[in-house]
Every structure is written in C-alpha cells, then in structure tokens.
Amino acid sequence: MKHLALTALLATSALTAPGMAQADADLRIYISSQHQPDVWREVLDKYQEDNPGTTVTIETGGNTSESQSQYLNTVMSAKDSNLDILILDVVRPAQFAAANWTHPIEDVDMEQYLPAYAEANSIDGEVVALPAFSDAMFLYYRKDLLEKHGVAVPTTWEELRAASKTVLAAEGNPDLQGLSFQGKAIEGAVCTFLLPYWSQGKNFVEDGKLTLDEPAALASMALWKSFAEDGTSKKNISEVATDDTRKEFQAGNALFAVNWSYAWAQSQSEESAVKGNIGVARLPAMEGGESATCLGGWEWAVSAFSEHPDESVALVKYLSSPEVAEYMAVHASLMPAFPEVFDDPEVLAAVPWFADARTVVETARPRPVTPRYAEVSEAIRTTLNAVLAGVTSPEDGVAEIKARLTRVLR
Amino acid sequence: MPARSRNRLSWLTDPSDRTLAMMLLAPLVALVMLIVVYPVLRLFQASLYENSLTSGLPPRFVGFENFALMMEDPVFWSTLGNTLLITLVTVPGALIMGLGLALMANLPFRRQWPVRLSLLIPWALPLAFAGLIFAWFFHSEYGVVNDVLRRFGMEPVIWFNSPRWAMAAICLTIIWKTSSFMALIILAGLQTIPRSLYEAADVDGAGKFRQFFEITLPLLRPSIVVALIFRTITALQTFDIPYTMTGGGPGTSTATLAMYIHQNTVSFLDLGYGSALAVVMFLLSMLVTLVYLRMIRSKG
Amino acid sequence: MSALASHPFASLLSGKSLRLICGAILLVNGLFPALWILFTSLKTEAELTAKPITWFPHAPTLANYHTAFTDQPLHVFLMNSFMVALLSTALTIVIAVMAAYAIARLNLRYRGLILSAVIAVSTFPLVTLLVPLFEIMRTLDLLNSWTALVLPYTVLSLPVCTLMLVSFFESIPRDLENAAMIDGCTRMGALVRVVVPLAAPGVFTAGILAFVNAWDEFLLALSFNSSPSLRTLPVGIQLYQGEFAFPWPVISAALVVGIVPVAILIVIFQERVVSGLTTGGIKG
C-alpha cells in the first residue's frame, strides 16, 4: 500500500511543478515539532527526487505554541528571508495576511477544499495559504462502559453530566473521571470556552468588532466550572492540557473526553489500555442549542519575504494536494481538507472512523478571525483558566474578557 | 611636564589631555547614546502612536490615547499591583535576610571560601534558572518544600494553583536570590567598621544588641542605601522569575508590568501600547530613584 | 579582645557552636538549590515520581545529560551564551578602561557630572528599553544575531565596571606614570605600558562581572534571539518543556550544564569577585 501511495506522490509532484522546479532553489520550510515533521520529510524527499535542483530543509521550532509564535513573530516582523514556507495554525492566515507577511497563491481552485478551509485561507479575495490537514474537536467516549451501564451517547451537556454520574457511581473506581477537557491556559482553552458559547448560536466577533453575548459567555464559563465542582471532572482541571486529556483517556481513566482527532490513533494503538473500546461523536450541545465544534488544522503559507516565491508556491501546492493528503491520512492519521479523500478506500482502511469525522469537520466553526487574534486568544484562555482554578468567578471572568477585548477589538 | 615634540600625527599618537579625554570617553558616550538615550527618546515618541505590526497599517499618531486606554485596562492595573506588591515584599525581605546572612558570614571562620561560595553561587545563578529550580522545589507533589512540610506533619500546599500561594512562592524565590547580593554588599560594609569602636563600647559597658543598633547599623547605612536603590529598581523590573515559574498565572495574578510590556511587544506586536506601558515603568523608576536621592541628601 | 566577643550574636552562644550553626545555615542556603538540581539530574523519571520522594538518587544515571544534549541543541545554546558573553565582556572592558582612565587621571572639568551620568545609567530600568531596542534591532535587521545582544549587554555592565576601574586607577600612584612620561613616554604610552598592567587585577575582576551579567541576562535574549539556533542558555532551557510535559530530570541536567561555566569562574576567582562587587557597589 505504501508503494502505491508513493507512486501516486511521484506522479503528483511531477505534475504540479512543471518547468519551474528546474530552477535551483534551496527552500526552508518551518514545521513545528508536534506536527510529525518526520512524516512530512518523507513527502518532501519524494518532491526533491522529482524536482532536482530544489532542496528542502525542515526547520522545527520550539515545543510550545507560545515559543513558536514568538519565533515567527520575530522573524516575520524583521522581514527575514530565512524561511520560505511556514506551517500556520488555522487561526493565523488572517493575521499574517493583514500584516503583509504572506505571498499570494494564484491559480488554485479553492472549491476542492472543504468550505471552512477555503474561507479561512482566502482573505479579501486573495488566497494566502493552503490547507495542510484539517481537524476538529470531538467527543470521545468509552463504548464499553456506556454499553455496560445501558447509557446512550449524550447529545447535550446535561445528558453528559447525568451519564457521567450514573457510570461513575456504578463503577466505583476512584481513578475514573467523568469528563476530561483542556482547562490549562493553552490555545485549546479558547475552543473550550467557545464550544458552549457557539452552541447557543452566538458569535464572538463580527466585522472585527467584539460582539460578546454576556449571558451566553456566562453560561459557558459556568458550565465548565460546574463540571469541576460536581465531580464530573477533576478538581484541578485547570492544569490539564491537550496531551494530558489524551493520556488520561488512553489509560482508561476518563469516561468522556473532549479532544482533537490525533487522540484517536493513539488511543487505538497497542500501548493503549482502551483499544477497541472507544467511540467518537459530535460534541454535545447546550439545552435548546446546536452542537458546535472548533475548526482546527494547519495551513501552508509562503512567506512574503521568501527569495524563491515561485518555487515555494509550487511546493505548497504539492503539499496541499489530494495525493499528499491521502498519504498523510494513511501514515500520520492527519485528517484531509479534501472531502473526497475522506471516502478513499485506502484511507478508510487505515482510519475507518474518518467516515464519521467528515460531517463533523464540515460543520466546524473557525475561531474569531481578526489580525489581533493573539490578544483575543490570550484574554479568553487566561480568563477561563482563572475561572476553573477558582481564582475568578464566572461573572467576573466575563466582565474581564469584555473589558480586555473591547480595547483590543475596537 | 617635559616639552613634547609635535608632528602631523601628534593629535593621534600624543594628544593633549583634552583631546585624549574626548577620545577615551567617546566610545562610552557613543554606546550610551545608541543604546540608552536615543531609545528613550524614541520610546516617548512611540507611545504617542498606534502601531500594531500585525495590522499591516503604518503607525498613526494618536496623542495620549494609549494612556487613556491603559487606565481602562484591567490587566495593566493587576500587573502594576503585582509589581508593586513584589517590590514592597522583596526589598525589605532581601534586606533583612541579606543583613542576617552578612552578620553570619562576618563570623571569624577558619576557612573563608565556603562562606564566600555560599553567597556567590546564588548571585551568579541566572534568575531564569532560579525560577525553574524553585518551580521544581514548590511542585505540589514532587517538590522538596511540600516534602519537608509533610515530614513536619503539616498540610502540603498546592503552590501554583492559587494566586496568593503562587505569589508567595515567587517572592520567596526572589528574596532567596537577591539576598545574596545584599549580603555581599553589607558584608563589605561590615568589614570596614573598625573593631576599636566595639572595644570602646564594651569598655563603656554597652550590651551587644545596643552596639548593633548604635554602631553597626548607622555605619552600615551607606552600603544599605546603595543596595536598596539597586534592589528596588530591579524589583520594579521583575520579569525572569515569574515568567519561568508561573508564566503569569493563574490567570494574570502573578504577571508583572515587565511581563506585560514583553507580551505586548513580542507576542502581540503592539508596539504603541507596549511603549506606553514602558513609559509608565520608566516614570515609576525615576520617581523611586528621586525619592531615594532625597533620602540620602536630607540625612546628610 | 577577640573579634568574636564584639559580634552582636556573641552573647547568644559559645563561639564554636555559633560558627557551626551559622556556617551550616549559610551553606545550606547558598548551595542547597544547586545541589538539589544536581541530584535531580541524576535520577530517572520513574524515581522522580515515586512517593515519598527521595533526596539522594538511588540509581544515579547520566542518561539525562545525554538527553539534554540530544533533545535540544544544548551545545549551540552554550556556544551562543559563551560568544555573546565573551564579546560583550571584551567590548565592556575596552570601553570601561578608556573611560575610567579619563575620569581618574585626566582632570576633567565635568568629572562629577560624568560620574553622576554613569551612575544614572546603572539605575536605568533596562526593561523599558525593550520596545525601542526591539524596533531598532528590527530595522537594522539585527534580530536573531549576536550583535543584538552584545551591544545592550555592554551597556548593562559598563557603569559597574567603569566605577570599579575608576577606583582602581585612582589607587595607582600618579608618580609611576609621571616617571614614565619623564622618560619619554606619551600619555597614551603611559596608559598602556604602566597603568593597565598594574590595574590588571581590577580589569580582570571587571571582566568577570561583565561576563556573569551577560551570561545571566534573560529578557533581551528571549525577545531578540528567539531562533532556536541563536538562543542563549537561559532562554534555550525554556525549550525543554514540551507542549505537554516538563521533563524535570532532563531540565535539571541542562541547568547543571548551564551553571557549570559560571560556577567554575566563581570558584576560581572568588576573592576578586567579592572585592569587585563591593568596590563597584558601594562606591558613590
């Protein structure tokens, strides 16, 4: 199977870079270390084979998004030509484009991608980045435990709370938590806050201005806090980060978990204590609301200061092609941004649950689109963290978000 | 002075005192101009502009708008408060601990080097390292501090989950680190006090504690004041230890003004607002320096 | 009359036990944190999370040091720190020697003013310069370079070193230079051939102080040199924490590696450093 995939890649790389790739170019591509640079390396090696004269070096940044974004900020604001291609969190293309840090990509049919990504990467009619892979947040659950206690998969947060109470009481296992989610002040916490907020049908930003619906925001903060207080989640949930949730679920210590797609492959691996016993579903909704999930995924952008813009654009188009997306789906379990790749038989053979994932990703919502997203993210995640840690009340938390972001989004 | 022969290159090989002075001072002046004076002027200018590098727009003159917005910014007030709190706690704290350490170090030990080392190593340690080391010390499950507390039968504290305890951990770390520098300064001062003064006081029948308050402390005043000035100015700029220990959390309860300036500059690329914040810190430092200078002058 | 009897604490305890207790307090206070990190760096991750926690490592291992060098380019961080510290120290010394000589020897009209200015710079809040310096370095395309740090670090240590050298120079009798000049030396010649060699100890001490200041600096290094290949040690050590975890034994190993160079300097040159700190510190 790998053989077939690589052959397809060869064909693609030969097709997508006609003529131009003959130029001698030494490209530097920035891939953050948590995004499996070693698998991308295989893909890049194929491209190099097919396009002699182009060498691609991977540069990885620090391990935390904070250090990575500081690094990129410094490099880009200095107009440094050191990096040609960057991998950006889906929230960043808008910011980078507004700062004139991206080189436009032309002659791309954006209709081939999922609509959310076509939108996230097109700013003012210009395509500024192409998807590397897609992602969204899901509700993970223990199939075996739910079946054992005759509980249905919850569709609302209150149902989840009730399900958790039932199962926890019946199991009597002190190490088992009801729900694990991210309460640490990381980027993922922004999603944590927005899920119930969006579920009530509210928007956070419109036309670059803050449109905070305070009761909805309060409901969201109060919901998460209540989980920590009534025993559904750990008391110190404010210390839990993305991989902590994954580890806990994988070790069998959580009935439900809110997490991104990568957790699936790990939880079904040989080292997992819950292999074969897990299921994935849409996130629950607030009472009377719709299920909402956070759009994730990362994008490839060409630096506006690159000295090889044409070669870089060619490489980006290759990296964001259906064939590469299929390869990454099969070998790195990264969800594709192409609807049809979800249905590809080889992909489904490797990651069968992608069949259900597609509808979730299609309805995922992007986080607030604004050039000052860094500040928005900082305000939301630190405030949610403070509320979960018991440092601030949900009411004060909402007031603080409003006070901080009114200045930023004016 | 012997007569000097003059040739064309005399100004370079054998300059007059005045020329020489200018040549020798030039590099210092040039560097200070480049790194201190010019930037400060730019700082004041930049604080009057709206300049967010992520917006892609050119800087826009807005007068005092940044400062007006600052007044409404809850994060500004909490970081300012944290900075002042840290200053008020760690300056006297480091002074007292430094004084204690200096008095102890002044004992006639047979070997001086262990004493010296135990003051020098904390001084030479980067603040950022101290932050990491003590973050580990205060770890709620595997840290030494809680281990000791448990051994004494006391309840361990979850240090970094609560603003008050996190701030306490930070202040303790800062006091530990800076007390060594204070101790070194005070120790030097102690060693200049002539023994004869104590001997005379003994003859007069004065007790040890009275000698301490009437001889030692007054004569230590110059050293103490100098140490205090530096400690206070540095305390206002506290960055390294909270940054590496808590990152400002939980929430913004342990974030300092210096951290907020850094965040606005490097993470948010909002140079206008960052400059305005820095102007506030600058004025605060100047105020403190002036207060200390007044104190020095008034007491002769 | 023994020195001990005049000490304020003398009334509390007998001489020997007092010294023992105080000595122990001093040693524990000063060296315990460094020792603890040393022990932690020799433990395995498993031993770390065992309860109750152990103090001495039961099965000491050097594996963490290996990981410290492979997980992140620790040798690169070391080199960056070393080069930046060395370059800024050299620059500081050269400039400070020149300025200190001018202040100490040449009867300058504005001597008092210059000294006050030097002291004023030393009380300057460096943090406030972060924003304008960031802008300047950005415009001059100096971000992520050694130069971006060497220049500010030089200014950081200049006041202390200059003041220290001023007092050193003043302690050298003028007659020596005058003698040299009567013998036919120019002023410059006298500076280089007579004064500098005599002030060598002071110069050396000033150099050590400048080196330590540069080695320890964090804020500017964090802000200007965030490229992984240009980070200095205090900044690079922050990189060991993953998105997910804090590998304490590995971080401890990296910390030990980071402390060793400066610790060696301190151990070898302790007396000089102490005298230098206090001369520069209590002057004025």
CATH architecture of the largest domain in chain B: Orthogonal Bundle
Helix/strand structural class of chain C: mainly alpha
Count of separate DSSP helical elements of chain C: 13
Strand content of chain C: under 5%
Mean pLDDT of chain C: 82
SS-based class of chain B: mainly alpha
Strand content of chain B: under 5%
Total DSSP E strands of chain C: 0
Q: Compute the CA-based radius of gyration of chain B.
A: 25 Å
Distance between the termini of chain B: 40 Å
The topology string of helices and strands of chain B comes to HHEEHHHHHHHHHHH
Give the class-level CATH name of the largest domain in chain B. Answer: Mainly Alpha
DSSP helical segment count of chain B = 13
What CATH calls the topology of the largest domain in chain C is MetI-like fold
User: Rough shape of chain B?
Assistant: globular
General description of the model:
The complex is a heterotrimer of chains A (410), B (300) and C (284). Chain A is an alpha/beta fold and 410 residues long. Chain A is built from 18 helices and 13 strands. In chain A, the strands form four sheets. A five-stranded mixed sheet of chain A has the order 2-1-3-13-6. In chain A, α1 (2-16) runs antiparallel to α13 (322-332). Chain A is globular. Chain A starts with a helix and ends with a helix. Mean pLDDT of chain A is 87; it is low at 15-22. Chain B is mostly helical. Helices cover 72% and strands 1% of the residues of chain B. Chain B starts with 9 loop residues before the first helix and ends with a helix. The model of chain B has no long low-confidence stretch (mean pLDDT 87). Chain C is globular. In chain C, α3 (63-71) crosses α12. The longest helix of chain C has 32 residues, at 74-105. The chains are: A alpha/beta (410), B mainly alpha (300), C mainly alpha (284).
